[in-house]
Amino acid sequence: MATLAENSYTEIGKRPVRHDGVDKVIGKAQYGADLNLPGMLYAKVLRSPYAHAKIKSIDISKAEKHPGIKAIVTSADLAPLPDKNAAVGEDVYANMKYVRDRILASDKVLFKGHPIAAIAASDMHEAEELLSLIEVEYEVLPSVTTVEGAMEKDAPILHDHIKSTSLSGVEVHGSNIASHDQYVLGDIEEGFRKADIVIEREFRTKTVHQGYIEPHNGTAWWTSDGHVTIWCSSQGHFQIRDQVATVLGLDLSQITVVPMEIGGGFGGKIASYLEPITAVLSKKSGSPVKTTMTRVEVIEASGPTSGSYVKAKIGATKEGKITAAQGYLAFEAGAFPGSPIGGAIACMLSPYDIENLLLDGYDVVNNKPKTTAYRAPGAPIGALAVETIVDEIANELNMDPIDFRLLNAAKEGTRRADGVINPKIGMIETCEIVKNHSNYSTPLLKDGKLRGRGTAFGYWRNNTGPAACTAVVTPDGKVNLTVGQVDVGGSRTSMSLHMAEVLKIPVEDINPQVGNTDAVGYTSLTAGSGGTFKSGWAVYEAAQQIKQLIIERASMIWDSPIEEIEYIDGIVKHKSDPELKMDFKQVAKVSTNTGGAIVVSSGVNPGGAGGSFSAMVVDVEVDPETGKTSILNCTAFTDAGTAIHPSYVEGQIQGGAVQGIGWALNEEYFMSPDGQVMNTSLLDYRMPTSLDLPMIDAVVIEVPNPGHPFGVRGVGESPLIPPLAALSNAIYDATGVRMRELPMSPSNVLKALNNS
């Protein structure tokens, strides 16, 4: 771990066993599908067999007469939503109707697997069989499943009411382009005139899925008092509550969402899919209802990330100074507007100090499931283009790739493409650590084989948002901590370390839990790498309150002014009488008799989420006969600001690196001409396994973030950004062939080798 600043922490930086670890190891932990309630029914969803079709009619009359069907739901049971822009939870939709139609289609189906209706029955298999009693008449329409095809003039139009507005304000009707964003700095034409070398390249990527192991699930119990309780595995139970309330037309106070353990999300468990359907079925049947997706449904009908087309152009002087950069990016949004195009154009050039730039981003709908976030949404695709061109320029100039990056590195005071002026950041420090690392500085032994080394960098801006917690000091000196942050990767222990650090008590004395939407204040998503930043800050503030209350209780016990009492290293002391002192547990023991229980709460919405830089150095060997790329060595670097729990940070780095490797080398949606996903199992959707990977060396860099009490920077997403370009650069170094289309699968690499 590369620590670049001194600190005096006593608890932060330790590696305690996670509080939920035993429950998960022994199988006691409860995930969404584990829940069983008395009299529970099971639901299955009827899904469209077509990628694009008008719904002419939905006939449920036969199904209603069958005694085995306890309830049926169609879009007619959802709240009518107005035709206007609105925010729902963390999702912003161009049209409120999209919220409703994503849950259950009304007038059109827009992708294979689009939900049409659902039924509840006593048995899951019976429910699936009885779906055939629902009769749907379709008018099949032409479909389009690539971003470039959707932008053609004669492309099938998904939404007649989409208005594509140019930057000059001209509206174009009948388009699949939902939005166009543009970032401009300086004078792009003047920047390219100053360049001695200009390289322009095109890149294409396919649709990929987050690949979480646990499928989507939802259980609901709508009781006779009009209140519905929902149990589910999500990245934000408050956001699920808000989305359900919107779709069903309920007040927020009518809904309680209980967060279950989550078996992976990576951005894909933000949107609500099953919860509103399950709630209505429960209301109609009078019984609790559970719904779970199959793996086929997960791949066909939950949100992957975008396929894309990118054209990028970068100019530099012969001394290696970048003078201008331009990008044209078109991202698939799937069936409804909202691709991660914003993350791509905001982050793709952020590792560098570039005075002249122009970035155009297009959000394009097509006949695939609505895209959702995938770990640093959009940024890996943008970095693929920038980092491969940067590598190519350095090669043309005969410069060391890291020296080229150091010459152009962003620093404090650099203005980013999105207009933000950088605070203290760690790009230069990251470059220097990468350059001095043995995986970069030690020559690669090729032994006559096609071996190569690739390097790439990435940036993620990190997010924040509202967060809350409550804390209760028990008479035995422990702290029961309730947070609103869903624990995806060990945040309960990270939050506990914040509390322990302030109070100077052992982290084992903190008992953390994630509260339901009635038990703790509103907390935004576990997403954007903001969980530890914002909820850690909320816990920090709560701990400060406890500290103050401990001082006040001691002043009561000693009948001394508060000004005479101080709290240092877990001990409360009297400034004037050294003999008077108590530890935390001694004060807690008498707390009920000195003012009552010590109970505090904290709600924050902090700014100052510091961006994080990352890098990867990877060595590969390419088989010239098969095109297979084998990874020999891999080192991944990330600036964590301050590593609250180093083991968890290392795990995030390794996990992000693995997902990036899969995205780069194997993963893609294979689409049929009529818009069906052809590889809907994990046997055919090729994610990497342990047999495909070397040990990944995770290097934690610490350039503390001045915008957080403990210097935290989010680390969940930036590790995924460099692998795509790093592997492309490594394959070039091994073969002399540039790969600009993902995945770089054996067949694609072999084709490129044969055509070179």
CATH architecture of the largest domain: 2-Layer Sandwich
Please report the total strand number as a whole number.
31
- Total helix count? 20
Low-confidence runs: none
Q: What is the spatial order of strands in the main beta sheet?
A: 4-8-2-17-14-15-16
How many domains? The number is 3
- Classify the helix fraction into a percent range: 25-40%
Produce the secondary structure layout.
Blueprint: E1 2-3, H1 21-26, E2 41-47, E3 53-59, H2 61-65, E4 71-74, E5 86-88, E6 91-93, H3 96-103, E7 108-109, E8 115-121, H4 124-130, E9 135-140, H5 147-150, E10 163-165, E11 171-173, E12 177-185, H6 188-193, E13 197-205, E14 217-222, E15 228-232, H7 237-248, E16 255-259, H8 275-285, E17 289-292, H9 295-301, E18 308-316, E19 322-334, H10 341-347, E20 357-365, H11 379-396, H12 401-408, H13 427-436, H14 438-441, E21 451-460, E22 467-473, E23 479-483, H15 491-503, E24 510-514, H16 531-558, E25 565-568, E26 571-574, E27 581-583, H17 584-589, E28 598-604, E29 612-622, E30 629-639, H18 646-665, E31 696-702, H19 723-735, H20 746-755
Parallel strand pairs: 1-31, 2-17, 15-16, 19-20, 23-24, 30-31
Antiparallel strand pairs: 2-8, 3-7, 3-9, 4-8, 5-6, 10-11, 12-20, 13-18, 14-15, 14-17, 18-19, 21-29, 22-23, 22-28, 25-26, 26-27, 29-30
Helix pairs in contact: 10-11, 11-19, 12-13, 15-16, 18-19
